[in-house]
Structures are given as C-alpha cells and as structure tokens.
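Trying the structure run again after the queue cleared.
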Amino acid sequence: MIDKWSIWTSYFHDLPVSEALKEFSRLGFKWLELSSEHMNEVIYVKEGEKYLDRTSFHRTIKMARKYKTNFAEIDGLFENLNLSFCHAHGPFDVTERYPILLQNWVERGIEKLEKWFHYYNQVGVDTVVIHPLFLKVVDQFEKNILFFKKVVKLAEDYSLKIALENRIKIEEYGSSVKQLIRIIEEVNSDLLGICLDTGHANVQVYRNNVEKAVLESKEFLIATHINDNHGKRDEHLFPGKGIINWSNVLKAFQEIGYSKPLNLEVPGECNTTLEERKEKLKKFLENFKLLHS
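Done. Tokens:
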C-alpha cells in the first residue's frame, strides 16, 4: 500500500511558490517536488533575471509583478511549513533549449546550475531531476557524458544527487532505462541516479509494460514522476485515467524496495480552477488508496 505521496508544486502553477506551499500543507501533504517554475521564483528574488530558466521566464516575471508581497515571503517560508522536498526539478533550458552547437554551451549550463544548486541547498533539496541532453546527433551519448561529468562534480560541492529523467521518444537518447544506466556507469558517480517518468515510459519504449522500466531501474531509482496516458502521447494524467497497469507498477516499486514517496506530476489535470484542482486531487488520493490498498 502507498502510504506516502508527493506532488510537484506546479499543480498550483497559478500561485506563487509561497501560496502554493501553504495550499499543499493545508491539504495534508508532507512531501513535494519543487517545480522548476516555482524554483525560478526563488532564483528571481535572489539573483534577478540572469539565471532564470528561459522556459518559464515570462511566467516568473508576470508572477513577480502580480505577487510582489508574496515574493518577499520566500525567505524563511520553507522552514515555517512542515514540508519536505523529496526532490526538485532542474531548469529545463539547460538541456532542452541551450544551443548545443554554440561555443561554450557546457560552461553556460554549468554556470546556471551552480546558482540553482546553491539555492536548492538552502531550501533543503537533496535530489535534482535533470533531463538528458536533447540531441538528435550521432555523438549524443558522448555529449551527455561530457556534460554530466561536470554536473556531478558541481553537485558534489553542494551535497546534491542528480536524477536523470527518461525521455519520451525512441530516437531521443535516454528514453530507455538501459541508456540512462549507461550514462550513470560511464560518468561513474554515486551522485547520479534515475528519475522514472511513468508516462514517458508508456508512450513508446515501455508501452503497456511500465513495470519493466521500474524493475530495470532497480537500485538506480532515486526519484519519480508518476502519471498516466493512453500510450500515444505524453498526457500526464492522474494514475488510473490511462492504460498503465498500476497494480503491476506498484508491485514493481515494492519489489525493488523503492522507499521514497511516489511523486505525482500531472499537468494534464491542471486546466481547471484552483478549487476544482483541490477537489480532484482529494478524490484521486481517496479512490486510488481504496483500489490499491
């Protein structure tokens, strides 16, 4: 039976991080994944615009203007609420949108990550989820090794672990667990592990067999993105709303001895009002517990 759930904080994407954390606390959550969108707010307060994740840059600026008082509450907020972070999501643009062929792209990414790692450390995060590099070139494995050797060296300075998240499409390096393990073994660092996104796994590589991805991850698994889909695209729905066999998946988590909270990442459920989202979340937790206790 699952007795510990986590959820990524952008389930309340329309709230600043200070208000989002308060809402999760009121809902009874003890564990969260700090989203890149909400971490961007922390970076903005501390460093201004320079080190923002460009993927959510405009959201951050808009929220800063709308919630000036709330942004000022960031200092001390994390200590005042009875919440812990099982992991946090790193900036997307470091591996998604950085122009890989641009000179000094590695140095640019590491410079940004150093700022983010510093503030993760301050807010109590010990594990950071990062995607493998978004590459469709013949040397994508080698470039991932080059990049993540530098990332783990930096992570060591801040006592952080890095969780590589599986990608979606077969042609993208890192879509299979075996490819992620190959990166981990080549980098050769205990600080590098796996974040398994169940929905990503179900789109192509492990369609209708997500439990296989869990079992392959074994001791390398240090973070999760739990969500469902219908095997055709990345829908990020609540578990039970797609085709994933959750009984098998939960048994697989139990078999490998995964002990962290299972972390919901369900942006496909976020196209409703705040109050509707809160009710949907409560109902999901109640119904899923009844079905899989």
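The chain is about 45% helix and 15% strand. Worth checking whether this holds up in the mutant runs.
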